[in-house]
Amino acid sequence: MKRKIALVTGGYTGESVISLKSAAVVEKTIDRELYDVYKILIYPGDWHFLSVSGEKIPVDLNDFSIKIGDDKITFDGVFNILHGSPGEDGKLAGYFDMIGIPYNTCDQLSSAITMNKGYTKAIVDDIEELYIAKSLQLFENSPANVLRVENELTLPLFIKPNNGGSSIGMSKVKTWGELPDALEKAFVEDSQVLVEEFVSGREFSIGCYKGKGQITVLPATEIVSSKEFFDFEAKYTAGVCEEITPGRQTEEEVGRVNRIIPKIYAKLNCKGAIRVDYFLQHETGKFYFIEVNTVPGQTETSLISQQVRAIGIDVRDFYTELIEEMF
C-alpha cells in the first residue's frame, strides 16, 4: 500500500515564491509508484489543499488532515519544502512533533537554531579546521550599534538579516557611509542583524544528507558570480552566475571539506538534506563557514539537484531516500 505524503509549501515570507518552485519539481519527481502526494499550501491563516477541480480544501489543524468528498485523508509523513518561516525555523517541526507526524527536515530545536546565523556560528565554532569571520550580532538599529560596528570591525562588511534566507535584505558595505542604509535594509527583514567582516575567497555550496542510515557528502558547487556577492538576483536569475559542479578544489581541499561537513551535520543534529555555504580563503585556503540551509531549494537547477546528479543518483531515488529515512 502506498504511503500518503503531504508536500508542504508556501510560507509566510518572501521566500514563498521559491518554495512554490521547489514544490513543483518535487511534486512531479517523487516516485508515484511508492507514494500518493498531496501538495499542502501554507499561508498565514490559510492552510489548504487544491483539488483537481480547483476546490480549496482546508486543512484540519487538529490532526493535519483534509477531507476530499466523504474521504478523510491523513498523512504518513511530510515532505517539507517550505523555505523560511514556518517551515525552516522550527515552527512547523514543533507542530508535527505534537501531533506525531514524521517529516524529512531537522527537528524543532535544530531548525530554530540553524535559522539564526549568529547562534549557528557559535555552535560550530569549535569544529576542527573550520573558521568563522569576525562578526557582531545586533538586536536593534541604534546610533550606539553603528558606532560599535565602526569600532570593532574592519571594512568591507556583509550586513544580513540574522534569520533570513535567499540573501533577502543583504548588503555589502565598503564605506562607513553605506553602513546606516545597509543596517536599515536588513532590519526591515528581521529584528536581529548579523554584521561580519568580508572574507576574500572562492565561494562554494555543498549538500549533505542522511539516507539509508548513513551521511553522504555531495560534491561541492563552486559559485562564480558576476555580482559582488551571491545575492537574490544571482541565486535565482539565469546567467548572473556560473555554477561549477563539482567545484574546482584540490584533492586536499576536497578531503578537508569532506571531513568538516559531517561534523557540522552531526553538531547541529541535522536531519534530511542540508546545504552548507563556505569560502576557501584566497590567501590561506582556510575553510570559512558562511551558513547552513536546512530546507535547501529543490528546483531543477538547484545546487542540491546538480550535486545529486553529479554522483550518478537519480533525483527521484534521492527523494525516496529522504522520505524513507523518516520512518
Task: Walk me through the topology.
Elements: E1 3-10, H1 16-29, E2 35-43, E3 46-50, E4 56-58, E5 66-68, E6 71-73, E7 77-80, H2 91-99, H3 108-115, H4 117-124, E8 130-131, E9 135-138, H5 143-152, E10 157-161, E11 171-173, H6 179-189, E12 193-197, E13 201-211, E14 214-217, E15 221-225, H7 232-236, E16 241-244, H8 251-267, E17 273-281, E18 287-293, H9 303-310, H10 315-324
Parallel strand pairs: 1-2, 1-7, 8-18
Antiparallel strand pairs: 2-3, 3-4, 5-6, 9-12, 10-11, 10-12, 13-14, 13-15, 13-17, 15-16, 17-18
Unreliable segments of 5+ consecutive residues:
230-236
Terminus-to-terminus distance:
15 Å
- Give the name of the CATH superfamily of the largest domain: ATP-grasp fold, B domain
Measured as a percent range, the helix fraction is 25-40%
Q: How many β-strands, per DSSP?
A: 18
Count of discrete domains: 3
| Radius of gyration over C-alpha positions, nearest whole angstrom | 20 Å
CATH class of the largest domain: Alpha Beta
- With helices defined by DSSP (H or I, 4 residues minimum), what is the helix count? 10
**Mean residue pLDDT:** 92
Global morphology: globular
CATH architectural designation of the largest domain = 2-Layer Sandwich
Order of SSEs: EHEEEEEEHHHEEHEEHEEEEHEHEEHH
Instruction: Name the beta content range.
Output: 25-35%
Structural class: alpha+beta
CATH topology group of the largest domain: D-amino Acid Aminotransferase, Chain A, domain 1
